[in-house]
Specification:
The complex is a heterodimer of chains A (115) and B (289). Chain A contains two helices and seven strands. Chain A has 115 residues and is of the alpha+beta class. Chain B is of the alpha+beta class and 289 residues long. In chain B, the strands form two sheets. In chain B, strands 1, 3, 6, 8 and 9 form a five-stranded antiparallel sheet that branches. Classes of the chains: A alpha+beta (115), B alpha+beta (289). Strand 7 of chain A pairs antiparallel with strand 1 of chain B, so a sheet runs across the interface.
Chain lengths: 115, 289
């Protein structure tokens, strides 16, 4: 069953998958006031020819996938990677016990694509 | 460390069937876990995990509101703090500071003037100051009837000075620099905000010359002109009760902490990439397009 599931996963198209980072699991909730954790997500899946429009691909990735579909030894498939990321805000206490609110860039995957 | 065995769970996939064979031997060794935590802390800009006593720290309500506002914001790529009335574009960090109590506080007998000292030394040198504001809480008078107010003025003025050089009793007068002033209505409640960026900028440039802010409350009048002598006079009792500069003797500590004056600094830590404006569009617009 595991092998079957693994095989199915290998054939899945490139897409966003859930990944939750929980600050309380590492005991960071004493200094991070909010959020308790955050949805980071990750990208996984196959980039097969023809690449769907929603995968937000580049011309180069199309060519690479095309060549791969013709002869896999010539070029590997394009990679399934985050193509759009968003920031998160964190409210925390620093070493001087001061309250800090900071925005961190590129922390959450919004969209995945083939590049 | 107690948290270490859980660290690998934290950064692993939630779906148990992906890369999780249930074998504890696949867990990283303690050295790797320490390295993982170091990397995460570095990502958040910390050299070590801060040791905090949460019982001593009160999170200002304004910070919680700002956090909620940012979380509800529609800008996908932007790291700027949306703050109305302040130039916080490119500012990605907000810090709050409270007054540092000292024996100097005892010199101010009346509630209509006070010196507020904020220790801003925790702002890293590399961060660029974009804006700074002082917030004062107003309360008390709004609940009283107009009859109870009697002949007290309807508006009053709050002046905020940067103490450039403190005075020496009997020898030298202090040197002040007016940084902001506002006319406030006595029947209004909530917070009043003052732009104190020039003062904080100077303190960051010359940390030893941070002598604090001098805040003065003077009476104003909405019903015709007021003589300059009257303007300088000590205001009637309800006015200085309205804007809260210091704790009342009978006031409980937990009540005061949410009403105390706060200094907010808006800085740019330079860790984010500048993106063209066209990228910082809302997700709603993107979907529609």
């Amino acid at each position: 069953a595991s092998a079957k599931r693994s095989s199915r996963r290998k054939n899945e198209l490139c897409q966003r998958k859930p990944l939750y980072v929980d600050f309380s699991d590492v005991g960071w909730n004493d200094w991070i006031v909010a959020p308790p954790g955050y949805e980071a997500y990750y990208c996984q899946g196959d980039c097969r020819f023809p690449i769907a429009d929603h995968l937000n691909t580049t011309n180069h990735a199309i060519v690479q996938t095309l060549v791969n579909s013709y002869n896999p030894t010539l070029a590997p498939k394009a990679c399934c990677v985050p193509t759009q990321l968003s920031s998160i805000s964190m409210l925390y206490l620093n070493e001087q016990n001061k309250v800090v609110l900071k925005n961190y860039q590129d922390m959450t995957v919004v969209g995945c694509g083939c590049r | 460390e107690p948290a270490e065995p859980e660290l690998d769970n934290e950064i692993s996939d939630r779906e148990p069937d992906v890369g999780d064979d249930g074998d504890s031997s696949s867990r990283p060794d303690p050295k790797t876990l320490v390295e993982i935590e170091k990397n995460l802390l570095s990502l958040f800009g910390f050299p070590n995990r801060p040791k905090i006593d949460r019982s001593k720290v009160v999170i200002p309500e304004a910070m919680k509101q700002l956090y909620a506002q940012i979380m509800g914001h529609d800008l996908v790529d932007s790291v700027s703090v949306p703050k109305e009335g302040l130039n916080t574009r490119n500012a990605n960090t907000v810090r709050s500071f409270t007054h540092e109590e000292s024996h100097i506080d005892e010199r101010f007998q009346h509630h209509h003037r006070f010196r507020l000292l904020f220790n801003v030394s925790s702002i890293p040198r590399g961060e660029k100051l974009r804006a700074a504001e002082l917030t004062l809480t107003r309360d008390g008078i709004a609940r009283k009837s107009s009859r109870a107010l009697g002949r007290t003025p309807l508006v009053y003025q709050v002046l905020v000075y940067d103490i450039v050089r403190p005075g020496v009793k009997g020898k030298r007068a202090p040197t002040f620099l007016l940084v902001d002033t506002k006319m406030l209505a006595i029947n209004e409640s909530g917070t009043a905000s003052f732009d104190v960026m020039p003062a904080v900028e100077r303190w960051l440039r010359q940390p030893r010359k941070n002598h604090g802010l001098y805040v003065q409350v003077t009476s104003g009048h909405s019903r015709g002109p007021v003589h300059s002598r009257q303007r300088r006079s000590v205001p009637a009792a309800p006015v200085h009760e309205h804007v809260r500069l210091r704790r009342n003797v009978a006031e409980r500590h937990d009540t005061w902490v949410q009403k105390q004056p706060l200094l907010f600094t808006y800085t740019d830590d330079g860790r984010h990439k500048q993106r063209p404006i066209r990228d910082a569009i809302s997700s709603a617009n993107r979907a529609r397009r």
